[in-house]
């Protein structure tokens, strides 16, 4: 029987944070990233700012370990402004901890070294690793900026950063879980997000993927993922990205195999993802610059009635 989940539209944690709010799992992730081998989770000093919210979802993990001020964020949309967000966040963290008379002392006040990691798992194609710099946003470029913030973005979609995934089991299982949900949404276009997520949870429990969390926090996970996968927006984004890929593939097919093959590829694909015949006709015309008569002939030949 399908679950019925009522989503509280106020602020809630993302699944990434639900997993790694456990100090043991957060320490495992830190070790995987740094090559360290810390064993005592109690050494972590959590100092997340409670009122920092991104699109109504709490997605930040902030903590101090070994004199490093770490900020971990998970994002499902590429955001070139992450360094500016990080600048604000670190400023608030240091202000809370150190603002006062000590900053006017003649002695140097030592502070934890900042480290900013963004875990990206959106659908847009991204490399395994990418550096985002605050100085890239400066209206007057300078080779030696007086202030700099670097956000280290790691692609944690399943299949990326394999060595990191092997060093952190929960991160790998999180990537698998999200990948399974997306697979069901693509392959079962008539399914709602709730159906796809519920089926993915069942499969992952069966295959020991995030089993402990999914069994214990099933409804909380459902609500979190439903908030991340906007019902209309996410499906339209997937549909648009699939179309863009097909658009490019059709052009390459036409170049290598001939125009007719490229047109056939594009017509069949856009029909499969739900485009109307009129939309397909327009796309073929835009891509291949054919006459109306030629396009009509191809539509009659390849469009499945």
Could you write a compact summary of the structure shown?
This protein starts with 11 loop residues before the first strand and ends with a helix. Residues 4-11 and 51-57 have low confidence and may be disordered. It is built from twelve helices and eight strands.
Explain what the structure shows:
This protein has 12 helices and 8 strands. It has 305 residues and is an alpha/beta fold. Strands 2-4-5-6-8-7 form a 6-stranded mixed β-sheet. Strands 1-3 form a two-stranded parallel ribbon. It starts with 11 loop residues before the first strand and ends with a helix. 30% of the residues are buried.
Rg, please?
24 Å
**Mass-distribution shape:** globular
User: Regarding quaternary structure, how should these chains be classified?
Assistant: single chain
Annotation field: number of helices: 12
Total beta-strand segments: 8
Alpha-carbon distance between the termini?
35 Å
Structural class of the secondary elements? alpha/beta
- Beta content comes to 5-15%
Give the proportion of residues in helices.
40-55%
Spans where pLDDT lies below 50 across 5 or more residues: 4-11, 51-57
The strand order across the widest sheet is: 2-4-5-6-8-7
């Amino acid at each position: 029987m399908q679950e019925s989940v009522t989503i509280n539209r106020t602020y809630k944690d993302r699944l990434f944070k639900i997993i790694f709010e456990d100090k043991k799992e957060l320490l495992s992730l830190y070790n995987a990233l740094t090559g360290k081998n810390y064993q005592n989770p109690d050494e972590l000093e959590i100092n997340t700012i409670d009122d920092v919210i991104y699109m109504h979802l709490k997605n930040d993990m902030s903590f101090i370990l070994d004199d490093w001020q770490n900020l971990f964020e998970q994002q499902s949309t590429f955001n070139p402004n992450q360094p500016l967000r990080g600048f604000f966040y670190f400023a608030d963290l240091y202000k809370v901890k150190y603002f006062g008379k000590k900053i006017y002392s003649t002695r140097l006040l030592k502070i934890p070294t900042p480290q900013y990691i963004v875990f990206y798992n959106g659908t847009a194609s991204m490399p395994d690793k990418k550096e985002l710099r605050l100085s890239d946003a400066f209206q007057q470029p300078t080779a030696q900026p007086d202030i700099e913030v670097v956000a280290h973005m790691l692609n944690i979609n399943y299949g990326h950063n394999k060595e990191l995934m092997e060093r952190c089991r929960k991160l790998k299982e999180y990537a698998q879980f999200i990948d399974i949900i997306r697979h069901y949404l693509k392959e079962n276009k008539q399914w709602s997000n709730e159906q796809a997520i519920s089926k993915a949870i069942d499969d992952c429990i069966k295959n020991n993927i995030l089993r402990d969390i999914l069994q214990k926090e099933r409804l909380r996970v459902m609500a979190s993922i439903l908030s991340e996968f906007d019902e209309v927006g996410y499906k339209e984004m997937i549909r648009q990205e699939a179309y863009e890929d097909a658009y490019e593939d059709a052009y390459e097919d036409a170049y290598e195999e001939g125009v007719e093959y490229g047109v056939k590829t594009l017509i069949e694909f856009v029909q499969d993802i739900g485009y109307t015949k009129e939309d397909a006709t327009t796309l073929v015309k835009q891509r291949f610059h054919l006459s109306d008569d030629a396009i009509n002939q191809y539509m009659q030949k390849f469009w499945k009635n």
